[in-house]
Write a structure and sequence with these properties.
About 25% of the residues lie in helices and about 35% in strands. By secondary structure, the protein is an alpha+beta fold. A 6-stranded mixed beta sheet has the order 23-22-24-27-25-26, with helices on both faces. Strands 6-5-4-1-7 form a 5-stranded antiparallel beta sheet, with no helix packed on it. It has a 5-stranded antiparallel beta sheet with strand order 13-12-11-8-14. This is N-acetylmuramoyl-L-alanine amidase. One of its GO terms (biological process) is peptidoglycan catabolic process.
Length: about 425
Amino acid sequence: MKKTIKFFIKNRILVAILLLLALSSWSTVALASANAVVVQSDSVNVRVGPGLSYANMGQVKKGDKLAILDEKNKWYQVRLSGDKIGWVASWLIDNTEVSSATNKVGIVKVPNTTVFKSADAGSNVLGTIEQSQKVTIMYQEQDWTQILYGGTAGWVKSSFIQGTQETSGSTNSSNTSDNDIKKVTVTQPNTKLRIDPDQNGRVVKTAKVGKQFDFLSKDGKWYKVRDADGSVGYVASWVVTISGTKSAVKSAATNISEATIVIDPGHGGDDSGAESKKSTYEKNFTLAYAKAIKSDLEKTGARVVLTRSGDDSKSLGERARLSSKIQADAFISLHFDSSAQANAGSGVTTYYYNKGKDGTLANDLNSQLKGLPIGNRGTAQKDLYVLHYNSQPSVLIELGYINSMTDYKHINSSTYKEAVAKDVTNGLKEYFK
């Protein structure tokens, strides 16, 4: 009987030990994966800072899991393999629940706590942390805790860290400093300098494209500026670009998955555009083609914005300003040509205004469009409003002659529309390499 009791007790102790080990193992795995997100795009650039102007430090692939450490300007700071720390664009990551707010904050208990490169007291020392300092806990495994230290990952003894209920999201700020902005340059004609940061504010003066003001401060989406004559007022951020910053004024996407692209379906609303012999209108075709291109581009991870998504009237100024407002990486206006006499014209043409700003985009797109069944007329410089007054790289593509029966046969087919969408996507892939 005594042997039976002893055997029973030993078994219970063994089960308890195994259970504790299992719980310990589970908790470590949980800490490692609780804040994990999954890459959705084929490849995503990892940058050294939260923005496209920062240098690439590598790439992650579709399906890779990343741990979020911080958030700033719609970018996630993430932990990579090899304990590297970098930043990825949040819109390229499948993340509906996880944020930096789920990272726990710890308090250092011991004076001059040593931070090691690895979970090993024999590894290189990264530095020390003062007692009572708060740190973001990234990962824990038994005797060691990984923390965010000086923009990288470091390890400290777990016994030196006191856990708290506070989360890192509550102490992070996503505000960016404007201390480095020196000038703002007007990109839209008849830009208004107003007395207040409001579209209804009294107009101080009107500025031409290219006019520069000294930057004073920022108020929401408005810049407070000063002119050379001493007058002070506010201009809307979406009608100017900034200069003198440490980061690039315009986007610097080097991968289509990071890019913001504006697709502009020409005409709309009361403006029906050209009419075919079949009594169909250009405005309907441009919208259908824009939606097809948007669908194809979004498969690459790109952010795509349409200037209109229905049969809406949009001024040329509104279309160009949208590109400036969201700092698009590329603007593509879609149209269909028409000749004075039916069946007198044919072909696809890609127009640009400023060769330095728009030429490469025009060439890369046109090189792909050459394979379409409608003949290609090449690229050409043309002073078109949505290109002339667009601060971002921009082109206007005439995708064939709507009043040519030969061209119309293709324009009205789903096969041609799908081919155009594919060619535009491939052209942009080439442009962003």
